[in-house]
Amino acid sequence: MAMNFEQARLNMVENQVRPWEVLDARVLDVLSRVRREDFVDAAHRQLAFADLCLPLGHGEVMMKPVVEGRVLQALELLPTDHVLEIGTGSGFLTACMATLSAQVTSIDIHADFTATATQRLRAADIANATLVTGEAVNTWQPGGLFDALVVTGAVSDIPPRWLTWLKPGGRALIVRGQSPVQQATLLTHEGAGRYREEILFETDLPYLTHAEPPQRFVF
Predict the structure, then answer these.
(1) 53: nearest Cα among 7, 14, 13, 90
(2) CA-to-CA separations, 136 to 114, 119, 149, 155, 166, in angstroms, rounded
(3) SS3 35
(4) Which residue, 141, 139, 123, 119, is CA-closest to 131?
(5) DSSP 3-state assignment of 114?
(6) Closest Cα to residue 171, out of 108, 97, 104, 84?
(7) Cα distance between residue 6 and residue 4, in whole Å
(8) Residues 13, 5: contact at Cβ < 8 Å?
(9) What span, in angstroms and rounded, lies between the C-alpha atoms of 115 and 132?
(10) Using CA atoms, how far apart are residues 116 and 100, in angstroms rounded to an integer?
(11) How far apart (Å, rounded) are the C-alpha atoms in residues 25 and 157?
(12) CA-to-CA distance for 109 and 55, rounded, in angstroms?
């Protein structure tokens, strides 16, 4: 029996995302319109709306729908915002943010992720997202500043260089800490190098390459 994706998408929004305190009408609308099933591998298409992290390859995962909803809500994206995403992954969050903002720049260290996400975004008629293959923890440097920054994998510690990429008033949503209990943290640039920090919720994501906790040696 063929799966009713439209009904499954509605159930995801109403029974998973909304009960997890995601009440922003624009966020709920974009999650209702962007076809999540088109951003997962064919082998996992039937699980596109499940309350699960879906494997992407390279040890990376697609975040649960509830986490994606909380991330989008916390960023409070405006139609004029320019957004930086570190970790393109499937491209689904990229598509949602592009729908809510003016422009998204998304970088991923894995060239196959970038290539596949480019195809998916094109198929979804998303034209305001620029995808880059590169290493963002230590080496890549953007050409400008952003209104919002989101990181789709975890970091042991936040690289200070990332925060210098925010405009005054800009927001960064970063999952940090030690697995299995990591904290989704919102940092707001208040100007003059000051950042207000708010812990939103706990989750557990794979670490970005080069952002893992340092190895501890036992003697």
Answers:
(1) 90
(2) 14, 22, 12, 12, 15
(3) coil
(4) 119
(5) helix
(6) 84
(7) 6
(8) no
(9) 9
(10) 22
(11) 32
(12) 16
The candidate with the shortest Cα–Cα distance to 151, out of 90, 88, 202, is 88
> What's the chain's length in residues?
219
pLDDT tens digit at each of 219 positions of the chain? 567 999 999 999 999 999 999 999 999 999 999 999 999 999 999 999 999 999 999 999 999 999 999 999 999 999 999 999 999 999 999 999 999 999 999 999 999 999 999 999 999 999 999 999 999 999 999 999 999 999 999 999 999 999 999 999 999 999 999 999 999 999 999 998 899 999 999 999 999 999 999 876 555
Neighbours of 122 (CB within 10 A): 12
| CA 174 – CA 185 distance, rounded (Å) | 5
Burial class of residue 43 (count of CB atoms within 10 Å of its CB; 0-12, 13-18, 19+): exposed
